[in-house]
Write a structure and sequence with these properties.
By secondary structure, the protein is α/β, with parallel strands linked by helices. Helix content is 39%, strand content 14%. The chain has six helices and four strands. The chain has a four-stranded parallel beta sheet with strand order 1-2-3-4, covered by helices on one side. Strand 3, helix 4 and strand 4 form a beta-alpha-beta unit. Helix 1 packs parallel to helix 3 and helix 4 runs parallel beside helix 5. The longest helix is centred in the C-terminal third of the chain and has 15 residues.
Length: 167
């Protein structure tokens, strides 16, 4: 069933409407920031498709409803995007979108420039989102102990490429 398929994107705006009309699938957006400056850094495609265009495309997503909400993925980065002000900005950004927010604890890798938000901070952030009427489950982290969690595998493969180049 198409209702069991979710297309995940970092925000290729021109394709969002087409996916909704032609594929009739659920949509997940890798958001991770509530302003263009930070999102440009975390999600570089934002430079081409800024938040204003992305959120408009989400508001217009064909088939979105309370029973078929757009999922926004939001990785929690300590002192980067996890403040109460960030949570309130996220609520404002989601206005007019049938949405839920997956809060994702950051999975650090060696020499990562970021750290994971504390458990207390993630829960406080989630309570603000939930109080505004948006579901905000916290994703369970798996594979972190072997550097195989979300976001860690790419860093491992990049390290492997660099090591081969050195040889």
């Amino acid at each position: 069933s198409k209702r069991r398929i979710t297309l995940s994107t970092s925000g290729v705006v021109p394709e969002i409407e087409a996916c909704g009309k032609e594929l009739e699938v659920n949509l997940a957006i890798s958001l991770h920031a509530t302003n263009n400056k930070l999102r440009d850094e975390i999600v570089p495609i934002n430079k081409k498709y800024p938040l204003e265009k992305l959120m408009q495309a989400c508001r217009e997503y064909p088939g979105a409803s309370n029973s078929r909400r757009i999922t926004f993925e939001y990785v929690m980065l300590k002192d980067v995007n996890d403040s109460e002000a960030d949570a309130h900005a996220l609520v404002k950004l989601l206005d007019g979108v049938h949405a839920k927010v997956n809060l994702i604890p950051f999975n650090p890798w060696p020499n990562s420039p970021y750290e994971c938000s504390s458990n207390n901070r993630i829960h406080a952030f989630g309570r603000i989102i939930m109080a505004a009427g948006y579901s905000s489950p916290i994703r369970k982290t798996r594979g972190q102990d072997i550097l195989a969690a979300c976001g860690q595998l790419k860093s491992a493969s990049e390290r492997g490429k660099r090591e081969k180049v050195k040889l």
